[in-house]
Each structure stands twice: as structure tokens, then as C-alpha cells.
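Quick board copy: two proteins, each given as sequence then C-alpha cells.
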Amino acid sequence: MAEGMPRIGVYPGTFDPVTLGHLDIIRRGAKLVDQLIIGVTTNPSKNPMFTPEERMAMVEREVASQGIANVSVMGFNALLMKFAERQGANVIVRGLRAVADFEYEYQMAGMNQQLNDGIETVFLMADVSLQPIASKLVKEIALFGGDITNFVTGPVRDDVVARVREIGQLGEY
């Protein structure tokens, strides 16, 4: 990276919904770069609960409530490296919860480096108290009527509960 160039980072994900773990990585990632772009992407294989627009609005609201000034939110539906290049990014920020995350992320970082070796991938370990949190599990708990208060902010919990009411609870065991 040339001296004097702004450090622009991209933190990609589906954020369906945005969790306390995501917000931890956003807060910490924002300290490492001049500008952090949260790239909200589409991944149909993850069976999204919220539309891309709803997820972007949710992330924007949560980032604003945290008072993090150097973060913006953008949607994208493209190859991550192409999106990062278009944003002028020189860093990809990724959060790691466990060894299983590392294996997948390590492979992705290697592939991304092959696509553009001018963009570095930086891994941030999730806070120990937040490591078990995954959006998929938050949705599953909510769909079965469980309490997700410890995993998301109050407004996100309300969004998820409202969506579960719309689509219907799966059961109570």
C-alpha cells in the first residue's frame, strides 16, 4: 500500500441477522482502517430470513447506534474481490469464532490472494463471550420460540421476533 493512501477495509457477510459478534468485529475492524465498508451480500444457500435491503437497514441502524463514524454499509452481489476492488479496498476483514471457521476462511483468503494479491485479509478473533454466536443459530433458536436476547441487540431481537410472527414458529420442544 502506497504511503498516504487511505486504508479501506471491507467486512463482507450476509448479516442475517446482524449479531453481537458481528458488531464486535465491526467495532474492532473500524479501528484498523480509515474507512470500513460493511458489504452485505446475498447467499441463497443460507436461507435468508431478511431481504438484502432489510439487512442493510438493520446493519446501518446498529452501526449508527454504536456511534462508529468511519463505517458505511453497501449491498453487493458479486465476487468479493471485484467488490473490494471497486471500493478501492486494500483490506478484507473477517471474523473467526472457532477452528472450523479458520479452515474455511484460510482457504478463502488463499483464493482471494490468487485473485488480487494487493488486498490483504485480516482475521479478528471473536470475543470469547461471543464465539458461539452465529446468525444461523440465532434464527433457529427464534424459529423454535427461544430467547435470543443474549445474541443480538434489542432492536434486532424485535426485528427477528416480528419476522418469526410473520412466517410462523416451527414448534416448541
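And the next:
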Amino acid sequence: MPIARALRRFSCPRALMISALLWGSGFISIGLTGMAVTGNLFLAVLGLFFLSVATVAYTPFASGLVVELAPESLRGVYLSINSQCWAIGYLIGPPLGGWALDRGQFAADNFWLGLALSVGVAILILEIVDRRLKK
């Protein structure tokens, strides 16, 4: 609740951009955990902290954005599709992560970097959505 309250002053897309930056920070921290010689525990805790705060920041504002975008008669459908996106992520993520781990240290390290870079795409899309909502 405190995180949602703190982000309430932003529009839904802006709050989701902040959440995305937290996701990216978490991905980088977790990736560095495998590369660092020392401080692995600190990096792992820091990464999990960022990822947990990102999840807490994401959830209310993603639903809020869906409500803003969806016509009233189709809100239930839009919200169910929003939930399905998480399910698809849970379907794709573990096999993709396992594949990266099977490819060796270089692929495993760069897997987290790739995830962090994907945040840039999410922020770009959210910026476009924010501009369109303001019009």
C-alpha cells in the first residue's frame, strides 16, 4: 500500500515506467550475482528487493491502465487478457531461463542483461500510451 500511495501522483503509464525501471534494476542485480566474485548475497538480496517492489508497484497500476483503456462493456475481457499475460510469462520464462543456463556461463550472464534491455522496450511502449492518453 505505501508504494501504491507514493506512485498515485503519477499517471498509470508513468507509474508502470517506474515499475519497469525497478524490474530492470532487479534483473541487473540478479545478473551481477552470478558474475561477481564477492558480495553475491548482497546483490541477490538487492535484486530480489527490486523485483518485489517492482511487482507491488506494477499490480495496481496495470489494472488501472486496463480500466482506462477498456470500453466499459469489455473491461472484464481486457482484465482477463491482462492476467493471461502473466500466465504466458510463467509459461515462457522457466524454459527460456533453463535454455540460457544450458548454454553456459556466457549465455546465463547475458540472459539477465537481455531481460534488463527489454525494459527499454516496455518504457518506450508506455511512453507512447501515456502520450495518447493525454490527447
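Board note added afterward: The longest helix spans residues 40-69.
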